[in-house]
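**Archive record**
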Amino acid sequence: MFVDQAKINIKSGNGGNGCVSFRREKYVPNGGPDGGDGGRGGDIIFKVDDGLNTLYDFRHKKHFKARNGEPGKGKHMHGKDGQDLIIRVPLGTIIREAETGQVIMDMAYPGMEEKILRGGRGGKGNQHYATPTMQIPKYAQPGKPGKEFWILLELKTIADVGLVGFPNVGKSTLLSRVTNARPKIANYHFTTLNPNLGVVDINKGEGFVIADIPGLIEGASEGIGLGHEFLKHIERTKVNIHIVDVASTEGRDPVDDINKINHELETFNGELVKRPAVIAANKIDVMQDDVHLQALKKEFEPKGIQVFPISAVTGEGVQALLYHVHGLLKELDQETKVYEQEYFIDQQELPEESFTVQVLEDNTYLVEGSKVEKMLGYTNLETEKGFAFFQRFLRDTGIIDELERLGIEEGDTVKMYYLEFDYYR
């Protein structure tokens, strides 16, 4: 089954906690701290798999989580890093943030590999918190949590040329004749319910990729039928082939068909009608007269859009059409249309709180935070000046106010990383 959109949840791994440990060897009775650091959490990585052409694998599985880092161990042993999770997607998959729809990454190149979420950093072991005045630190840093996001995956087919037209005009038949693709072909509407890709080999390895876009209908640009699902697959094409039934086997007017298709393209994305186009006037093998063929030439060739009478069944006129399209492509920029990044996950992180206060058992209060950890790193509490600075820091940052709001009493214990002291007003 062809699936070209999916909503999934991704989460990188948590960092492992640092370890609190002390050397305990036979002839070293007073060994110092030797707690190792926690391992890094696993990353979420997206990779283009050339063997995939659908997002079907994401239809039932919605949650993808990388492994957590392992905690540190004694004897300075570092915890094992969490295993990265590689999510394989088809070429042309766009990754969007689910709530805003903004582009996180466009997987537009073969073999492309991108790290979307970084795993949490591992916590430091207690070996890092030993000081001349605190030789037995009983604190280790917890690991940082991973990041979690809901994202949208959207597949936009990557092809040089798009075959567009109303249902049952012969797009699939033409594709099967000029490429190695084998789409389902039958004489009824909407045989094709997903884009089919094929490679046209012109000569000596030169060629281009062509996509049979499922038959459009009026109102497709407004989402009628499967309009949006079909139209998005020609947003990357460089040249469009309008294929029409010049024999009018179903009573349709080919000129009117092309004008209606162009209206749908322009309404959906105005850039689509500005691209080079060519008209394949199909079914000349059953054409009774050339009235419609002449009408096509009169209407569109003065506008620079060449009309090629062809029969996708017999192959008549097809070679001239392909060589003309190949010539158009050689004049154009060969770069694939890539959707620019709009959503930057690293910039969405909330700033870390200056401090947090947690009430533990036994009248103990745990104070943590980036500012607290940084302050302890450069303050010598054994000096009078350093101790005075520490007291001012507790007042100025609001830590004292928060402790009192939580009900701290004189004599209760306050823990700040490696530092532990009794509280007195």
